[in-house]
């Protein structure tokens, strides 16, 4: 940790004209004396630290001092920094801040940071502090091999108490997941963080089990159902949230037809219902029945 902190201090001094001992102590959660000793070690290593006195004093590096940055092309540096900043918007953790600082170091030039050709933003609209607290607990538990316990609510609304040996945190599109060994199911499982309640880190430590080689987080192995949907033209403004425009069939009757495959679960029912009377399920018949029954129960609440 000491070596990592020393490197991080150097990077902060490169990316900022000067930083105070107080700012560094607060950021790294150590004392000012520890920072002063770190600065001495950095100087002894031959890195040209400049000490500024007075009201606007602090530490910096000799002007034009740079770490070699020939490992990446300028385009690669731009993409890496954009990607890291996009993840950090979804999870504002110090690790991502440190990575961004290091990548900004590679960007350093007389013109400053180049405006990116594209933007990645994986964060939610609005605040999501609860999710950040869950990720903080899980990250610490994974690093220290602590089991965790929580109440899990599945997609059908069924709640079960789980004890998990956490192994990985996964960001898929804009949703966070926990992957680990579930002692209740006696198997490896994937849990959506937004469905986790009452999460606690247990004092108990665990020895990680061998992860099955067949695990692939990038493929959806759930059984899919083919559906044929008929949309009113009023639904067009939302169809690109779920389907590729090339897959839409615009017929002479004024309706839009879509054939697609999705895993059959509550998500697909909710997606169809969200279009209200602007959609009709043509196939398969059993999903027509599911939607009809759900719509009937909704109607029953208002009569």
Beta-strand proportion: 25-35%
Number of helices: 9
Order of helices and strands: HHHEEHHHEEEEEEHEEHEH
User: Which strand order does the major sheet show?
Assistant: 6-5-4-3-7
The chain-level mean pLDDT equals 80
The unreliable regions are none
The class by helix and strand makeup works out as alpha+beta
Could you give the distance between the termini? 65 Å
Strands, total number: 11
Secondary structure: helix percent: 25-40%
Q: How much is the radius of gyration in Å?
A: 26 Å
Major pleated sheet: 5 strands, antiparallel
Assembly level: single chain
**Outline type:** elongated
Topology of this structure?
Elements: H1 2-15, H2 21-28, H3 32-44, E1 49-52, E2 58-61, H4 74-90, H5 94-107, H6 129-144, E3 146-153, E4 159-172, E5 175-182, E6 187-192, E7 196-205, E8 224-231, H7 236-239, E9 248-250, E10 256-263, H8 266-273, E11 279-283, H9 285-300
Antiparallel strand pairs: 1-2, 3-4, 3-7, 4-5, 5-6, 8-10, 8-11, 9-10
Written overview of the protein:
With 303 residues, this protein is α+β, with helices and mostly antiparallel strands. The chain has nine helices and eleven strands. The strands form three sheets. A five-stranded antiparallel sheet has the order 6-5-4-3-7, with helices on one face. The chain has a four-stranded antiparallel sheet with strand order 9-10-8-11, with helices on one face. The longest helix is centred in the first third of the chain and has 17 residues, at 74-90. It is elongated and about 75 Å long. The protein starts with a helix and ends with a helix. The relative contact order is 0.07.
